[in-house]
Amino acid sequence: MNINFFEIIDIASLLFLAYGLIILTGYVFLAIFSLFELRDYKRKHNFKDEVALLQSSHLPKISVLAPAYNEEANVIENVKSLLTLDYPSFEIVIINDGSSDNTLRALVSTFDLFLDDMIYFNHVSTQKVRGVYSSRNKAYKNLKIIDKENGGKADALNTGINCCNHDIVCCIDVDCILERDALLKLVKPFLNNTKKVIASGGIIRVANSCIIEDGRIIEVRLPDTFIARAQILEYFRAFLMGRMAWSRVDGLLLISGAFGMFDKKIVIEAGGYNHNTVGEDMELLVRMRRLMREQKIPYTVSFVPDPLCWTEVPQSWKVLHRQRNRWTRGTIETLDLHKKMIFNPKYGVLGLLSTPYWMFFEWLAPIIEFFGILFLIFMVIFGQLNWYVFLIFFGVIYSFSILFSITALFFEEFSFQQYKKPKYMIRLLRTALLEPILYHPFVMWAAVKGNIDLIRGKTTWGKMTRTGLSNPTKTKP
Amino acid sequence: MVSPIYLKMNLASDIHELPPILEINLVLTIVFFVFTLLLISLILYLRVHKNIANRRKEKLDLLLIDFINNYLFNEEFNKVKEMAVFKKRQLKTSLDKRVAISQILVFAENLKGESSAVIQEIFLGLGLYHFLISDLKKNAWFKKAKALFVFYQLNIKIPMSLVEPSINSSRNELRQQAFLYLLHSSTENPLGFLDKINTPLTLWEQIYIKNALKSYKGNTPDFSRWIDHKFPSVAIFCMKMIADYDQFEHIPLLLKLLNHENPEIRQQAILSLRDMEISETLEVLLEVLIDNFPNENIVLKQEILKTIGKIGLEKHLQAVAPFINKEDGILKVELQRLDRYFNPKSSKIENTNYTNNLQSDTINMSHGT
Amino acid sequence: MKKKILVIEDNPMVVKSLEFKLLKEGYDVAIAMDGRSAMQQLEATNFDLILTDLMLPFISGSQLIEHIKKNHPNIPIIVLSTATQEDIITDAFNMGVDDFITKPFSPNELALRVKRSIGSFKNQLSHK
Fold this sequence. Notes:
The structure holds 3 protein chains of 3 kinds. By secondary structure, chain A is an alpha/beta fold. Chain A has one domain (1-49, 176-477). Chain A is built from 14 helices and 13 strands. A 10-stranded mixed sheet of chain A has the order 3-5-6-2-1-7-12-9-13-8, sandwiched between helices. A two-stranded antiparallel ribbon of chain A has the order 10-11. The longest helix of chain A is centred in the first third of the chain and has 43 residues, at 2-44. Chain B is mostly helical. Helix content of chain B is 64%, strand content 1%. Chain B has helices spanning 4-12, 20-73, 79-90, 94-110, 114-125, 128-136, 141-153, 172-185, 203-214, 232-244, 251-257, 263-276, 279-292, 298-311, 314-320, 329-342, and one strand at residues 353-355. Chain C is an alpha/beta fold. Chain C has a single domain (4-127), classed as Rossmann fold (3-Layer(aba) Sandwich). Chain C has helices spanning 12-24, 35-44, 61-71, 86-94, 107-127; strands at 4-8, 28-32, 49-52, 77-81, 99-102. In chain C, helix 3 (61-71) links the parallel strand 3 (49-52) and strand 4 (77-81). The longest helix of chain C is centred in the C-terminal third of the chain and has 21 residues, at 107-127. Chain C is globular and about 35 Å long. Chains A and B meet through helix 1, strand 4, helix 6, helix 12 and helix 13 of A and helix 1, helix 2, helix 7, helix 9 and helix 16 of B.
């Protein structure tokens, strides 16, 4: 019996070790690349001299596309805040995706809108457009509202792409808070590059508990709830370490749907957003990159680490579960649609590094972890668990997770340091200690559930109920 | 299920008796924890260091503002003596010097007239010139770039040999600062660096060059000089500038470029000529464009249609309409839009939007195509 | 009695320089670093001149000018701003400001223009 037990342990341990080693190397590389990329970025932006740009008429015009679905509560405030962005020439296109509330009516009356009988070309086919509205008020001449039948986020964005006027589109979530210079910072890679830039993405910051006035972050505060703080750590890891490093090797696969800028022509050529997946943001970028690669046009995708976009993250476990469940399904669907790329040297970094990384780290990791835990429970039940062995294994995993979070915290400190009060840093350290035990198993379960739901054929959107950003102190019970 | 005795027994057992895998794990755990502690100390160190630096900066900023204001506006201020004292007491570290440079830049940015020369005097008096020159001689591109930036912002001349190598640096940022330094310090040929560059101009650089030209005191350069440049980006930039500065004498040249082999240059020629709006050339421009229309690519066709909308008449539209293919839905839409523009009442259509699955039958044009 | 000037500007360097220069010229100077604080000071004190930037935190310069023109129509206003675009300058004059000085500015010239505007204020009063 004992021999048998050690044999199982040995095999499991070896597998575990091999997997752990892959992950470890992956993370070490991420950390190193990201460090270089951040250092370079800081050095490049050592000049505060952007006045010249704001007055330049030679900057490309930008269309900001923001889908709105039942956003009655905040849409007016959000649009007003978008209209005050600092950029010489841009239009705001709000796409009302068949809201069942008064979103459209609120917009029409506040901004004095009229039905604009405009002609445009449907590059991508979409749900029926009921009307396009413009404002009679000169102050809102950059505002356009599209009213269409419900078709989901991807469909709404496609409609926006059809109707908008400019060659660079910036797709955002209507309720995210943009820094005033967000467009300028995000468009810079498009202008200052010898290669063709097809997209640039920004970092997403957590707005929960921050002090917000007139659609601007006045003071950055650390969220009061553990669940939101844990997500801050997650976002640091994902953006400051993950995306930053991927951008260094030009292997970025995902630009967050909440804030990304694209070359409209390439988006159209690639066929626009795919409305058959819940991960439309990732899928689009992968498809665009694939298109460029297959046409052998040199190109790049850029990432801007400045804190430019703030958004509210879920404060309830239920909503978080739905969100992660959806993310998992999006990842799998995208990987499935583009499985041809995985391990395919024809796609360079994308084929040999990015897609395998996404497969192992984003898709398979939670599943493997889940089976690990099942195995553990199995052993406990049969009284075969050697607690000493368990503690050692637990120790190595736990210490590694902490190390990883602390590294991400270090990057934040090294780069933009938004949480300036020392007590915030201490709280984040404490969160880092608790997160692997209290938070991580939950998101892992949500991911596993995503796999199960996908197999069962569930593809509906996880609806996100948000607490109004205008009233940040109010939290959902 | 698990007896405490079993646990104790294991704990007591020697580490060497552990299976190797557990041994590795144990070692790794310790390594991770050590690294974690190291990083935490590093974070704390960075935080404290940044705080100290910030406090020093705030304090020094106030002292500097006071000092510079006195130097600028206070007649009873003993300039020579106070300068020496300030330099000796306040500018000890290189951080101090960088703070001083930034503050001097703020003054230079906001004040002009007689104050500019005094600000320059303060910069030199505090010994910052040599500090930055030594930065320029270093290898770090970002230090070089910043030094060049400061020199041209303050209008300070430095030896050419320190600038020229940076024109073709592999770093965009450094190249840009070198261009701008050369532009600012030039008296006769502000764009002379264009003859020496080995990389195309990015749009970003073009914007900065254009902006710097605005404050250039000498004669506006003749932009046609670089119109045959080996990099199309330079030629395009010059074509934009010809339009911006109304260099009408180059209109014939631009007209010739309407037939250039590079489509990007053809496009810019259209844009520049359109923006200049010289009535005598408009007819020639439209004539060439209508002639070229059938053989142009779709982007240029769109540009030509837009040009007709801006400066042409309905007859010009009719001249190109037959050359729009059925498949080019996007051009059809543009045509439709223009037709409505020329005939605001006659062709009002409800819900006109076209899809790319060739619903071209529904196109309704008043003069028929 | 010394003339009182309210300086509304958010750049600490510019504030200090203006204060320094204007004190030297013999004026009383009050400072507001943002639009809100400017509003409060306007209610509490009578000023002889207002020198303001257009881009300010919380309440923009143009909103502020509108407020002053409505509630204190007699106080002359000088705008000090980076704006180089014609339309912004025209807009300011349309709102009724007395002078527009662009940054970078020459401190001596600014002092002269301040003197001129305060002078015109005296004339206005004597007419009434």
